[in-house]
Design goal:
The complex is a heterodimer of chains A (299) and B (270).
Chain A lengths: L10 H41 L1 E3 L6 E3 L2 H6 L2 H33 L4 H15 L3 H12 L4 H6 L11 H26 L2 H9 L4 H30 L2 H7 L6 H9 L8 H33 L1
Antiparallel strand pairs in A: 1-2
Chain B lengths: L5 H26 E2 L3 E2 L2 H5 L6 H32 L5 H13 L2 H18 L4 H8 L7 H24 L3 H10 L4 H12 L1 H17 L2 H6 L4 H9 L3 H34 L1
Antiparallel strand pairs in B: 1-2
Classes of the chains: A mainly alpha (299), B mainly alpha (270).
């Protein structure tokens, strides 16, 4: 491209021009990197440092220790961490199980409008979390919610502010996220594969068992960990809905930061945050290679 | 293949129910108050309720500032990566994806710790003034800093997709050989071609900031999302009504965005 332009087809002028351009590139990227170093790097370093620091209440001297980390993996903190993992795993599994048939129903539909509508709605709903979502469900299934009142659900033992209540609420943004993730892979399933399977006498179940599912597996697993990470990091929905009656790691950290617990627990909150970052990092480490693998089939 | 089967309609019907009932029930909840019958008070009260206007304005100001900062940082960097520093590209990609690995609650725990350094260690230095200034409750700039970081992954992806569609190098060189300076080439040749991507990035950032609760609540500020939660204790109907409205606004924004994205995609294909 560049050689067709008269300004740079001379190698003698091309070299300085290129160098100038490279310098300009650095100049434009440096503010971004500097910003991230301050706005993201400083808090990250502070979190790491705090997670490994203990302050002696008597002398005020600080020292490095792993006490905070061990404390964050014990007692109520461990319960909260496990509670978060369990909630995220159950919601992500259900989201995957429901999202797959829903996406399949949409992808194989003859109506283009339906497909467009569902995908657009999924894009919107997948970004729908936080406070409005919590209130929508409180108004529907909460103690004074419309469905609770009209169907008398309280007498039947229903309680929105419980583990399963949270699962139902989380699915509201996890299922659309799964539909968005899995649709490209479902589009990648060639009609010829199904025809070839049928010509060889395979039933629909055999086709899914031996052809479609193995191809979809990386995407399904990738989607699952993505959903898991999304549910694991969620805070606003649970905070607006249940306060801190359900043990979740995000709620525990929030409590510790706002000083609702014993003095000196702030650093345990930082250690808990570090635990969360490790889990989230693990999720990404699983997700990215899986996504790359599934991309092979879509080419 | 494309036969009409009851299984498909069953799946779609159930999904439709699950996704529509909470929305419908929220509207019913705000309109049909037990003991009062049908009333639209919850909606008419919104504007006169204490804190609504100020918290909404605060959120909008924060959103505008965040969009301005994130675009000013990202657009020159992304364009420059295409032009002259391809070797920096993986660095920028990793840097912009890092915030995905840190959940907002962990991030705010870190920010809180940094802000505590102010009174603890820096009270005699001019830096202390900065720490106080960025925590001004009228316009907490520290939230803008946090939101820019949280928006980086989305803005990166939006701009990257937009830049993929145009040949920046040829555009700039054409503009330069026509006698344009660097700033002029950037503003008059490159930016108009990125209009879709810029809008996309701005809308995503706007939606993120308007709905953000975690960081603002834990740092003790009161933009829109925090205000709704605070008001929900005393006025349940009102808080659901505001949620319904804010949902509608966000959805219209995102739908406009989806429609816009779809149209530009077909336009560039045709």
């Amino acid at each position: 491209m560049t050689t067709t332009l008269p300004r740079v087809d001379d190698t003698a002028t091309a070299a300085p021009a290129q160098r100038r351009r490279r310098a300009l590139g650095w100049l434009a990227v440096v503010p971004l990197l500097a910003f991230v170093a301050v706005a993201f790097g400083l808090p990250a370093v502070a979190m790491l440092d705090g997670a490994f620091t203990a302050k002696d209440p008597a002398t005020g001297a600080t020292s490095y220790t792993v006490d905070n980390l061990t404390a964050s993996l014990k007692g109520a903190y461990l319960t909260a961490l496990l509670g978060s993992v369990k909630l995220s795993a159950v919601s992500a599994a259900l989201g995957t199980l429901v999202g797959l048939p829903l996406a399949q129903a949409v992808v194989t539909s003859r109506f283009r409008a339906l497909r467009e509508a569902v995908l657009t709605a999924s894009g919107v709903l997948a970004n729908f979390g936080g406070v409005p979502l919590a209130f929508a469900f409180v108004a529907t299934l909460g103690n004074a919610g419309v469905l609770t009142r009209h169907l008398g659900l309280t007498d039947k033992g229903w309680d929105l502010y419980s583990f399963w209540g949270l699962v139902i609420v989380y699915l509201y943004f996890l299922i659309p996220l799964m539909v968005l993730t899995i649709t490209p892979a479902l589009d990648g399933l060639r009609a010829q594969w199904r025809e070839a399977a049928q010509n060889n006498g395979a039933t629909a179940v055999q086709y899914w068992r031996f052809v479609a599912l193995p191809v979809l597996l990386p995407t399904l697993l990738g989607g699952f960990v993505l959903l898991f990470g999304s549910a694991f990091a969620a805070y606003a929905t649970a905070a607006a809905m249940v306060g801190s009656s359900i043990p979740l790691v995000t709620l525990q950290i929030a409590d510790a930061i706002s000083g609702n617990v014993l003095v000196g627990q702030e650093n345990v909150a930082l250690a808990l945050s570090l635990d969360m970052v490790l889990v989230a990092g693990l999720v990404m480490a699983v997700y990215l290679p899986l996504q790359r693998r599934s991309a092979r089939w879509l080419a | 293949m494309a036969r009409l089967n009851p299984w498909r309609w069953g799946v779609l019907g159930l999904a439709g129910l699950y996704f529509l009932v909470p929305l419908a029930a929220s509207v019913v909840f705000t309109v049909d108050v037990p003991g009062q019958g049908i009333t639209f008070d919850a909606y008419t009260q919104i504007f006169s309720t204490d804190g609504f206007v100020s918290s909404l304005l605060l959120s909008l100001e924060l959103a505008l500032a965040t969009i301005a900062v994130v675009l000013l940082l990202m657009v020159p960097a992304m364009v420059a990566l295409r032009l002259g520093a391809p070797r920096l590209r993986p660095v920028v990609e990793v840097v912009c994806s890092l915030p995905l690995v840190v959940p907002p609650i962990a991030f705010v725990a870190g920010i809180g710790t940094v802000l505590k350094w102010g009174p603890d260690h820096l009270s005699r230095t001019p830096l202390f003034e900065t720490f106080v200034a960025i925590q001004n409750p009228d316009f907490p700039f520290v939230l803008v800093l946090a939101y820019v970081v949280m928006a980086l992954p989305f803005v990166y992806r939006a701009l990257d997709a937009g830049l993929r569609a145009v040949d920046v190098r040829t555009l700039v060189e054409a503009a330069r050989s026509c006698g344009a300076g660097w700033p002029q080439a950037l503003v008059q040749a490159v930016l108009p071609n990125l209009r879709g991507a810029l809008l996309n990035a701005s809308f995503l950032t706007l939606a993120l900031v308007l709905g953000e609760f975690t960081v603002a609540q834990l740092l003790g500020f009161q933009p829109f999302a925090v205000w709704i939660v605070n008001v929900s204790g005393s006025q349940a109907q009102l808080s659901v009504a505001v949620s319904v409205l804010s949902l509608l606004v966000t959805w219209v924004l995102l739908l406009v965005l989806a429609g816009f994205g779809g149209r530009t995609r077909t336009a560039s294909r045709g």
